[in-house]
Structure formats: C-alpha cells, structure tokens
Amino acid sequence: MNEEWRRLIIGSAPSIVNDIATNNFPVAGQPLAYAVPSNGKTPIVPVTTDPVKLALYTADGLTAGQPFTNNTLPANLIDQNAVLELNAAPSKAELQQRNPVHFV
Question: What pTM was computed for the model?
Fold first, then answer.
C-alpha cells in the first residue's frame, strides 16, 4: 500500500518574497545605505583573521563583529562585479510588464 499522498498539502498558498528592496539595491561604485526591513537584522562587519580585510575595515573605521556605522556598507567592501550582475538582470516590475501572464 502506497501512502505517499499523506505528504501532499492541498491548498497551500506560500507567500515567498525574494526581492531586494528598491532602497537596498546596490549601485556600482557607491556605498550602500542599508535600510533594515521590519523583520530583518542589522548587518554586521564580518569577523576574519585576514590582514588585508582587517586593514580595509580599519581604513573604513569599522570593527570586525560590530554593526556597520549607520548601516552603511562601504563601496570597497562590495564586490562590484556582483553589483553589475544585479544591475544587468531585469527587475520584477520589468518582467511583469513584459509577460504578466507567465511571470512567477
């Protein structure tokens, strides 16, 4: 007897949001003034023993393991290639305009 049907949850309507808030979207070459979402956490400076990273933190007035000053991430700590990749992708609104029927 197969009882795999018990694992099905019928009528489930998950509400998953994976978008980056517009005000938290990075811009190439600029620091990111991060606005903490209502259910989010304050960004913390990563803890490391890498002397190069520690020198960058010191130059930016940051302390490893502590929150970023004014929730602002310095541009030199943000991978600019990742920012350019994010800017290359269309936004959710742009995708909905192109084909609202098939957008998930």
Answer: 0.66
Q: What region does 71 belong to: left with phi over 0, alpha with psi -120 to 50, or beta? A: left
Task: Write out the two tokens for 74.
Answer: 């310095």
Half-sphere exposure of 20 (CA within 13 A, CB side): 14
Q: Could you give the number of structural domains in the chain? A: 1
* E strand or H helix at 72: strand 72-73
What is the per-residue pLDDT across 45-75, written as a single tens digit (0 to 9) for each?
999 999 999 999 999 999 999 999 999 999 9
- CA nearest 60: which of 98, 31, 19? 31
Please name the residue that has the structure tokens 């023993």.
49
Sequence-ordered alpha helix ranges (H) in the chain: 51-59, 80-88, 92-98
Asked if residue 74 is part of any domain, the answer here is yes
